Amino acid sequence: MVRFNLRARATIVTALFGALFAPATQAADFPAIEPPPVEEGPVEWGSNWYLRGDFGIAETHPTDLNGVALANRFPNNWSIGLGGGYKFNNWLRGDVTVEYLNLYAKSGVRTDIILPCEIGLYLDATQPTGVSSIPSACSPWIRNRTESMLNMANAYLDLGNWWGITPYVGAGVGVNVLYQRAANNWYMYNGVPYAGVTYTDPRNGATYMANWDTKYESTSLRLAYAFMGGVSYDIDNHWKIDVGYRWANLGSISGINRYNQPITTNLIQQSVRMGFRYMID
To answer: Whole-model pTM?
Structure first.
């Protein structure tokens, strides 16, 4: 009986020790490994993006349209624009720009334009037609506002950086939103409107009315393209100053010339532009 009790006690003690030390043994054999915490840093918007702003002085042709006479020399016009782009590598970059162009703007009398106008007819046997005109002199009173919003996608080839100076060439294509609002009203030398002057042909009694007045009002889209070249200078790691030349075909434009003849021609602009580029880090 005593041996039985001793054996029973030994068995119970052994079981208790096994129960106590088994988890510790398993934990020692298979330690739990937790991954280190991951620290999340700020997310950066790529460092090759840039913003740009430009102001330009330009020479625009035709120089005489719908009563407005621009100086036939450089400059006779101006523009201002904003844009943004991306630098792909040290040689290639591209941007999208939007520019406002103030093309033709004037209101008033063109005293430098005096054209002979006809206010009547009389019988004249010395003329092959048998009649001669009764002349007067007419000048236009004009209202003209012609402007555009030039939207361009441009690509540039940078030709290396030399002590902070980077020459480049480029080309662009886009859409020119052309807005025209113009009216030409002609007056005789005595201040009477030419429109509404009536006269009778003495040969057949037919009545005619003289009217040179014209009016244009439209908003149209024109295909535009340009070629440019220039240099930029690194002010610091972020700022660059840019000076360049651009030749641009802004699409076709219609109106009348100084001789009151209708014309349709391409709107050509040569400009020198200066601006800044800001590289975003």
So the answer is: 0.75
